[in-house]
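Task card 7
Instruction: Convert sequence to structure tokens.
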Amino acid sequence: MFFSVARLRLSLATLLLASNLVAARDKSLFTSSVTYCAPPESLLIQKFDIAYYAKNQSIVFDVSAASVVPNINVNANLFLNVYGMRPLNITLDICHLFDGALCPLPIYNFTGSDSISLPKTVDIASKLPDIAYSIPDLEAYAQLTLSDVKTGQVKACVQSTLSNGWSTRQYAVEWTTASIAILALAAALWQSIFGHPASLAPVRLIDIMAMFQTIALSGLLALNFPSLYRAYTLNFAWALGLIPTKPTSSIQTSINRMRHLTGGNLPNDASGDGAISFVNRKLSPYNSAGFVVPQSLLESVAALPRVNLADLASLNTSSVAVPSPQVLVGSDVATVTEDSSNVLQAGIPIYSNSVGIATANAFMTIFFLALIIIAILLGMLALGYSVALLLSRTKYADRHPVVKEFRERYPSFAKAWALRVALVSALPILVFTFYQWTLKDSWLSVLLSVFLLIALTAVILPSVFFAVRSALPMARWTHSKPSSYLTPLTAPYRESRVYYVIPLLLVMVVKALVTAFAHSHGMVQAIFFVVLEFLLLLTLIVMKPFLTRRTDILMGYLCITRLVCSGLMIAFAESLAVQPIPRVAIGAITAVIFSVACVVLFLNLLVNMGVWRLIKYVVCCGRRSRRPGDTELASTSGNSSIAEKGEGHSYGTDQGKKDTATVTTTPSQYFHARPDNPSPPSTSVSYTPMSETSSTTLGETLPRRWSFQYSRPPSATTESPHSAPYTHRTSTASSPISGQRHSRNISSSVPTPLEEYPTAEHRAY
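Output:
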């Protein structure tokens, strides 16, 4: 009874919460940022919140303004722009608001809010499509212009971007992608400790992080991205080390102080979610220049008394409908100009400020994060070594030899994980190191970037050299195999194609150089990305470097995904001047393509973790066994895909031994209750074939289809099966081979051995 009541209460609570969510998603548009669009002369607007409700055709606003010039009567013009369309352009008589309390404008700071029902002649619903209330990251802005009634002179002009509450940037997506990376890390650790050193999970960890970084890197290009796609890429900012934070956080404050003490002269304003206020007005959704407020006007306003319009006697408070605070998002009006230093240009400035990190602080944020990761890595490796050392000295290690084996290979294990961390961190370190050199800001930041780049190079370049030196076609000086700690570079590829890591690293370095040094040429960046991805795809098709055909297909699909998305981004170049709606459509398509690739990698991760094998085991009631090649890339099992590629090295030394060994078959493999054959002689044997009517001690004569011999191609010198006896010389002393492939009978003295084919063609079976 208690549980039934509890479930009933939970259901009622869920319904109440759902109703609130539905109410919060009414068709409405409200302000998200406010900026000046004309230089204010006598009127300063400090706050301007406006919301439009489609349900009852009403406008709700909350205003905080100040006037310093007496006897000014103004009219208000409200202008709305949505993706280039202009559904609203009306003029309001300020003197009819608040019972004439604003005519003339009072000389003090005043605040007020009201709800106005639009006249029937203003039909916004017919001009504004319903998609405007549901499309994520709406590109729209409202402009309010106050002009003198007598002279028509503009006294104030404010632009406010609008939002409908929907966005492709969701904290749930950020945490989901981070959780996928953590899951891949856990699987990689588990398989590298308890599985084969060349397991598949550590390789997929690098692939997943590379995909997340690719999406985030696309948002760093100097292109006029639609708001929808820019917000989408912000979900993956953490993959580049740009953890969303507040501009006033302790780490950002420390970086600002360090920069100022070491010659930094760039502004450190980061506005977080309000970064759109400082976006260059040439970019979407702005089309006109912004202006700065005169300093004299700011000083005059500071000395004025503050008055709330709600306290005025002439105000009829019953007619005021104050909106929900969840709808109005008031903030101070940004004062920016087109040529001022705090205007955010396309690329890294807008991207980093959108996550609360100033442009000049981006590299130092990456640097501190790199130090934290190094400290965590060293601590975890030290802890793991201590545990392995203690366990190896206990009786548990005597019962489980794998503990001592892991203790012996722990140095290689530690080096391999240090190399993986370096490979994952390489792209963000290169991008923001090169970009820091273009800022010419703090000398200490530049010096630290050089040190970090040298350390990264010292870890990766020698490892790449030792990994590929024996695989290069011109490598004549060594035939030694790479060490086990180089598995992050060698495990995914065939032994003769390990040098495929060279074009991968070159593409990464070139992308970082283009992103950093061509930060003002978006078209050049997009074209470079397309060319690089095309060359990489061509290299993949020609070389087929991966161990299995399935992996080649998967990596080819990811490369095609990057190529297509890079090509679509050319449409975002400012020089092409593509209209807003087509740009949004292209941005949505690009986001969907990248999202599908992320889902594919996630499903591949689940398969590699054994979830698919578990499903097959459950469905098939445990009758299916585990394939040896499911979890290891460097498996020595007879994989058909590897055999098709003709890689002899995949068989290893054990296979070579099998080529010279005697081929034996168990009696139960082909038929039941067959007696064991006597041991064959160790020298060549001469014997006379027996006829079909001869008797044997091994049972009845087998039909022709049960012969275990491979057919030998006929030749002119082939003797008749009933010819005179001859002596046949075997390939090995322990495995005599009979030359009578037509004989059905088994000799009572000499067994009929199996034919051996040492060629790679027959080993593939």
